[in-house]
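Example: Coiled-coil domain-containing protein 93.
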Amino acid sequence: MSTSVFSRLTSAAFSDADKDQFQKADIRTDEEQQVKLDDTMQLLIAAGYFRARIKGLSPFDKTVGGMTWCITSSNFDIDVDLLYQENSTIGQKIALTEKIVAVLPKMKCPYRIEPHQIQGLDFIHIYPVVQWLVKQALETRQETGNVTRKISELNFAKSYRAPEDDQYADKKEGISKGLKTVMDNYRPNRRFRRSDSKAVAQLDEPTRIQSTLLEYGMKFGAAPKSKSEDETEQSEVAKKASAVSSAVKAAAGKEVNDDEEEVVDEKEISRIMNDMSAAAGAEATVSSSLVGSIVGLQSEEIQNISSEYAGKQIDIGRDEKSGQVRGLESHKRIVENLSKQIASEEQNFSVVSQKHNQLETQLAEKQQSLAEYQTKKEKYVSEIEEFNEIEKSGENASLLVTLQDLVLQNETLKKQEQQFKSFCKDEIIRLQEMINNLKDEEEDNLSLDKEKSHLVEKQYTADKEKFNKIKLFLAGRNREIASVQRKIDEVPTRAELTQYQKRFVELYNQVATTLTETKQYFTLYNTLDDTKLYLSKEVSLLNSIHDNFQQAMASAANKEQFLKQLEQIVSGITQNRTKAEKKRANEKMRRDELTDRYLDLVDKQRLYIKTVKAFTEECKKNEILTAKLERR
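Written out as structure tokens, the predicted fold is:
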């Protein structure tokens, strides 16, 4: 009984200001600590912890909250709960800081800090740790953002396409078709075939190469000595154009000039060409180059014309055998057929002429591009010569050595990349084989594991039922605990009651101050109103005297009456003054009475404090004596 009374009296004897002083007694307040505190708060706010802006929170709550926020943002777990523990005791603060300090070694923090340094707000040692934590949080945020952005782009690409992708797809489709057309038009076509395939194996390697190239219309080593590599392209275009023109001349029955073929070893090529036959299997009576060009360009048309010509010869022979009676009619039919053949040949000639014109235009374009290439070549040759002169001069030898080293390094890196890719492919194949082997082993062991899996499922079902029962029981207990916890939370604690009392006292003082100010305003207003009333009466009186003065001075009777009125006015003013002084004296007496009463209350308060102090001392003596009696 005495102990509880003493504890209540001691808690009431200390004011809230004293309690705040006791709570803040362990904080260092030198200038350097304050500078580090401001830097720490600014660093946390810049990192995104805006709770540090709240002025009502203590520096400890801001610091611990910021460190916890940085740790959780760095994807590390920490067992703290700051939701209802902002103003904790020293023991709770140290326990909280111990949990934070225990996580720092797991994060590989290079700075060491003790729990008492955080609890004591030693910001000289706290600032480097917070700075490192903020850096880790920002790096983790950036990595998470990059991963999230890549995942979002991947998910977007699965369902949607950007306009740039559609444009690229359209262009890619057109380019693919054009490339396919070019490859189909310019792919190598086999024009000849060797009649004796067994004799090829007996030839030497250069001869086999020459033979293979000639089968596809190419000539190995046939470049003229007086022309450069750029001129060979022009000669090839000219050969294609001459091949078309030669095909037209062959169809018309003209001979082909053998000077169009430029060969280094003409005898060897002729010998090889004699052993070849046309790839289409048709017998030719002209040179091999002419047969190749005809077969490659106009083979179908020539075959159709040959078949029509053979048919017409058969018809003519039948008509001659049938007699001379129908000679005129057969002659007419022959003329008509020949006219049709001439028309078709003219049409074919026009088609071939168009192709010839197209090839001529292509030849002109190639010649123009050849001229451009020659100018570029001359430019490049001059630049290479200048570069060789610079290299020989030795002024930029170090730069050239550096460039050569970089080129070698680039080639080495490319080789390493290729080796790494091949290694990765081999490793993928090996791992895939291991996976397949494991799958096979798993299938083999599947039959053996069925009984075990059945027993496991049975045990799992029993354990699951037991777990559900325990879970229901635990849920009931949790509901009971939550109900009791809510009832406990409904009862205010001593700190809350103290805070409520402090707030009520502040509110009472604020209301009393406002009431005093309001009373003063009312008193001032009434005083000013009375002053205004008296001044208005004085002004009206003076105006009346001024208005009636001339009229009163006109005669003696009016003058006497005017003086009597003035005397009455003066007597009235004197009476009002007497009443006001009497009222003032009464208010002064009332003030003195209230002052005496206030002094009596102050004496009673002093006596109360003195009595409480004496009572506290007597309670201490009572506790000491009670303890002595209990020991006996």
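Residues 397-490 form the longest helix (94 residues).
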